[in-house]
Design a protein that fits this description.
This protein is α/β, with parallel strands linked by helices. Helix content is 36%, strand content 19%. The longest helix has 18 residues.
Length: 502
C-alpha cells in the first residue's frame, strides 16, 4: 500500500490493501465500491438501506456490506478501522458516521475527489469542465456537452446529472473532456480537482438544512473555481459569483469570463439587440462581437426564457474556452431541447396554457419561471429545505392571479401569502395522499385561471414530502392536466408551442 493518501493520485498507484469505508449504496456508492475493489482496496460498505441488486452484487465484486440504522455507528465499522471514508453526497456533515470519522482524523472524500485522482486509467486524462450553481446546472451541462460534441470532441456529461464520474473515467474508450455537474454536497468534500474551465451559474438560498448556513453553502459552491486552468466563467448579474472568482486560487493565466443578458464587455458573453454574442474568445473583441444565435431562434426551440438564455450564454462560454467554433455551437443549439419538467409546455386549452416546471425545487428557480410569464396561476409548495419563501412571494405577487398551495409545509407558504399578498386568491390542497394532490391542484387552478393565463407548476420546494422526486411530481401534474382537459373539451385548442414570454 502507498505510504500515504497524498501519494494516491493515479489509477496506477498502489491502492491495494487500503481500508476504505464507503457510506451509502445507491448509484454513487456502488460505483465507488466497484472502483475501489477493482483497485484491490479492502472495502466495507455501510448503508441504511439498498436495492437488492446492489446487495447481491457487493460480495460478487469483493466488498463487504453492513446495513445499519441511520444515526448508528455499527460495531463492524469501528472494528474495521478504515484509512479513508468515501461518503455518498446525501450524508450531512453532522451525520454521526462523519462525526465519528472526524473525531478519529480519518480523511473523508466524495466520489468526485476519488474520480479526479483516478482519471488517468485509460491514457491521457480527459480535461474537466466543472459546472455548479443553485439552478441551471443540468441544462448548462447538457448544452456544453452538445456543443463540444458538435465541435468534434469525445465528451461525456457526468456527475450530479446522473452518470457517476467514476463510470466516465473508467470508460475503456476514454474521452477528450468531461462536463461534470457538481452539487454543493459533492463540492463540500472536494480537495484537489483542477478543472480546465469552471462556472458557478448563480447562488441563492438552497440546501440550508444540509449546509447549516448560507455562508457554508456559498463556500462549498466557490470550490468549483479552485485551481481552474483556463477560464473561470461567472454570472455578471450575480456579484457573489464574481467574488468567488476573485478569491479563488487559480492556475496562473486563467481568465475571468462574464455572462449576462446585457451588452457584453470585451471579455464577456451577452446580448446585443436580441443577438447572443461572444466578446471573450474573438480576436476583434475590443471593437466588435461574434454573433452566436438570436433570442428569437432560441425561443423557437423552447429556449427563450431569460434564465435559459443565460444558461446558453454560460455553456457557449465554456465551449468557446475549449476551442469549439461558433458554427458548431449554432449546430448544437439548433438540435437542442430541454429535459422534461423544465418549463415544459404541456397544452393550451380554453385559452389557458399549462406549464410544468417541477424542476424548480427552490425559490431562485421558481422566480426565474415566474418572471417569464405576465399572468400566472401558481402551483407552489413542498419541502422548503430551510429556505425562506417570503422574498419570492413578495416579489412575484403582482404577476400572480391566484395561487394553489400543496405540500406538507404548506402552512409556511400560506402564511407568506397572507403577509405579502393578502388580497390574492389562495387555495390550499389539504390532501396528503399522493394520488389526490395533483388532481385537486389542477381543478383549483383551472377554476381560477382566465384565458391568457399560464398555470405554472413551479413549486419552489423539493418534492419528497409527497412524491418520489421532482419527475414524479411533474408526471402526476401532466397526467392530471391531461385528464382535466379531456374531461372538459369545450374550448380545447391545439398545442400552440411556447406560450408568450415577456
Amino acid at each position: 500500500m502507498a505510504a500515504s493518501l497524498d501519494e494516491l493520485t493515479s489509477w496506477h498507484a498502489d491502492w491495494s490493501g487500503l481500508k476504505v469505508a464507503v457510506l451509502g449504496l445507491g448509484v454513487t456508492g456502488f460505483s465507488v465500491a466497484d472502483t475501489l475493489t477493482e483497485l484491490r482496496a479492502d472495502v466495507l460498505v455501510v448503508a441504511e438501506r439498498a436495492k437488492q441488486e446492489y446487495v447481491d452484487l457487493i460480495p460478487v465484486i469483493g466488498a463487504r456490506l453492513e446495513l445499519a440504522p441511520a444515526g448508528e455507528v455499527p460495531d463492524a465499522l469501528r472494528a474495521f478501522e478504515p484509512d479513508l471514508v468515501v461518503a455518498s453526497p446525501g450524508y450531512h456533515p453532522d451525520d454521526p458516521l462523519l462525526v465519528w470519522a472526524d473525531e478519529r482524523a480519518i480523511p473523508v472524500w466524495g466520489d468526485v475527489e476519488l474520480a479526479w485522482r483516478l482519471r488517468d486509467k485509460v491514457g491521457r486524462p480527459a480535461d474537466w469542465i466543472a459546472v455548479t450553481g443553485t439552478n441551471g446546472k443540468t441544462t448548462t451541462v447538457q448544452l456544453t456537452a452538445a456543443m463540444l460534441l458538435a465541435g468534434g470532441k469525445r465528451v461525456a456529461p457526468c456527475g450530479n446529472i446522473g452518470i457517476p464520474v467514476l463510470d466516465a473515467i473508467r470508460d475503456p474508450e476514454g474521452f477528450d473532456v468531461l462536463v461534470v455537474e457538481l452539487s454543493s454536497y459533492q463540492l463540500h468534500s472536494l480537495h484537489s480537482m483542477s478543472p480546465y474551465a469552471a462556472v458557478c451559474l448563480n447562488i441563492a438560498e438552497d440546501h440550508l438544512d444540509w449546509h447549516g448556513s448560507m455562508d457554508a453553502y456559498a463556500a462549498a459552491k466557490a470550490k468549483v473555481y479552485e485551481r481552474t486552468q483556463v477560464a473561470c466563467v461567472y454570472n455578471k448579474a450575480d456579484e457573489r459569483t464574481l467574488r468567488m472568482v476573485e478569491e479563488a486560487d487559480v492556475v496562473e493565466g486563467a481568465r475571468a469570463v462574464g455572462f449576462d443578458l446585457g451588452v457584453p464587455g470585451p471579455s464577456d458573453f451577452g446580448v446585443v439587440d436580441g443577438i447572443l454574442c461572444d466578446r471573450a474568445f474573438f480576436a476583434e473583441r475590443r471593437d466588435s462581437a461574434l454573433e452566436i444565435v438570436t433570442v428569437d431562434e432560441l425561443r423557437a426551440r423552447g429556449l427563450g426564457a431569460p434564465h435559459t438564455v443565460a444558461d446558453v450564454l454560460a455553456a457557449s462560454a465554456l465551449a468557446r474556452s475549449y476551442g469549439v467554433p461558433i458554427d458548431a455551437i449554432r449546430q448544437a443549439l439548433a438540435a437542442f431541447t430541454l429535459d422534461r419538467h423544465r418549463i415544459e409546455h404541456l397544452v393550451t386549452a380554453g385559452g389557458v396554457t399549462w406549464v410544468d416546471d417541477s424542476k424548480a425545487t427552490n425559490p431562485h428557480a421558481a422566480g426565474a419561471s415566474l418572471t417569464a410569464y405576465p399572468s400566472i396561476v401558481w402551483i407552489v409548495g413542498g419541502l422548503l429545505k430551510g429556505v425562506d419563501i417570503d422574498p419570492l412571494i413578495a416579489a412575484s405577487a403582482a404577476r400572480v392571479r391566484a395561487a394553489v398551495v400543496i405540500g406538507v409545509e404548506r402552512q409556511e407558504v400560506l402564511s407568506a401569502f397572507a403577509r405579502h399578498a393578502p388580497g390574492l386568491p389562495v387555495f390550499e390542497v389539504a390532501h396528503d395522499e399522493t394520488e389526490d394532490v395533483m388532481a385537486e391542484a389542477v381543478a383549483l387552478a383551472a377554476a381560477a385561471a382566465a384565458p391568457g393565463d399560464v398555470v405554472l407548476l413551479a413549486p419552489a420546494a423539493a418534492s419528497m414530502d409527497q412524491f418520489a422526486d421532482y419527475a414524479d411530481r411533474g408526471d402526476r401534474f401532466a397526467a392530471a392536466v391531461r385528464a382535466h382537459t379531456e374531461n372538459h373539451p369545450g374550448g380545447l385548442q391545439d398545442d400552440v408551442g411556447e406560450p408568450p414570454l415577456e
